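[audit] Reproducing an earlier prediction to check determinism. Same input, same settings, fresh worker. If the tokens differ from the archived copy the diff job will pick it up downstream; this log only records the rerun itself.
[audit] input (551 residues):
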Amino acid sequence: MSAPLLHLIAALVSASPTPSPIYAEADTLWRVGLTRGLFLDTSQRNSPRYSEVSTSPWIRTASGDVLAEIRKIRYAVSGDRDFKLHVLASELDGAFNSDLPLSINEGSLWAGRGISGRSQVGVALSYGSVTAVLAPEIWGTQNRDFQTFSYPENVPRPGDIEERMRHPLASPFHYPPHSIDLPQRLGYDSGLYLGPGQSSLSWESASVRVGVATESFRWGPSIRNPLLVSNNAQGFPRLFAQTTKPFESPIGDVHAQWIIGRLEESSYFDNDPENDHRSLSGVIVTLNPWFEPNLSMGIGRVVYAPALGFMDLPTAAFDFVRSVGPVASETSDDQRPLGPDRIFSIFAHWSFPDAGFETWIEWGRSEEPRSLRDFLEAPHHSRGYTLGLRHNQPTTNSARLAIEAEITSLEPSQSFRLKKHGEWYTSRRVIQGYTHKGRVVGAGIGPSGSSQWLAVDWIAPRWNLGLFGTRMRLENEALYSYFPEYRRADLTLLAGVRGAGKIGPFRFEAAWAESIRLNYLFQTKPLPNDAYRGVDLRNQVLRLSFSATGA
């Protein structure tokens, strides 16, 4: 994007209408996508130019920044409905893992062992109320070898007939009845891939935007681990409709988004070509109550089900209101008949702009309660949650100190001892679970995972530097369900440094971290005197990002 255009956009911001909560974070055009990953922050809240606290970061899309800027120009130039062409900022991302894959919230990019990278270029075209964003992505990975466990093909499991046998790289911890398409590795060789990336086609009126898209998007206030939809998996093809300005109700301003999309199986799950696709119908509704403009609350629900192809999507468009029933907690270990499954969550975000402080919470269940009595007896049954906070402390010379913390838990609650239920994102009726091309659509820590995140960043107008650390406990349910012998939890500890800077029309971002994976794949070695020692692996992690953004 040219420097004059960016200057024009900046000059028009003050004259344009206040953007809706959907686009509240779209005041910069440094990056188009939402796929910065776990270390390079996925939120514009870390932008040096963003000094306020966002009040409604609920519906974040990759094209949101572009559409917001186009809207500003359209509003400012009264009656100008001529064709417009905008060149998007080109982007190049690099990833390196020395010993083990580590890839969370990186969209289409799967950072396996070795070197991986992604490049994106594109344009945005607008005519009147119609906007097309063409932003394809190309990515590749070296995919060096590392230790995996073969799927237990020799162990008879319900539903494992020959034509449905799992791929050797399929998850060894998620065979029926609670199944998921979560391969340990994407093939045995290096690869290069091309996809539509952050593309969309939409029509926008004064209050509604509708269209088709493949871009990444997130629901809810969580930065690291949104429970319903995150940028952990690459964007899936979908139809959508959303508000662009709030609906004014007696209790406050209401925003909403509806989607119907198609999820795809990875190439490393099973050998059945008849079950490769699923539908996903979802809705999110948020409320800014009239009595507290800095408080936002919301609810979201998704229902996913087997589908043969795109022709099945219209019949599943309103599955988000469909009653699914008690799929997960049946006492039998048999695979349930194929059918829909669901996840829902409620959330809230409260900001205090004068103090530079914000906090958020998201709470959900993978199984809805059967009744009010059922909920009161075990409200924690199949629950998951995310809690987070962020504080911006102004300092000198327009700089600030930002402290961010977030914790997430999807670990099974104590109620699983009395009421069997599957792990988050696994399913009895949808054998691929809640995934797209082998990646979880929701929280990147995956089934029965948990994490704690802490970061401290010094943020100046044109650069930032910070420290971060995280603890991730993976596949906690497997520790108790799949290993009769003594094992220890699979645990990742990671700490590193990150920074970013803008030099002329270029922006650079980098993060380096050292991690240790304790008890990798729950492996322990017996020692004398009935003692055990875990199999621990170290991993060097490097992330680089470059974009040409204009002045």
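[audit] rerun output stored. Observation attached for the diff report: The chain has one domain: 3-548.
[audit] end
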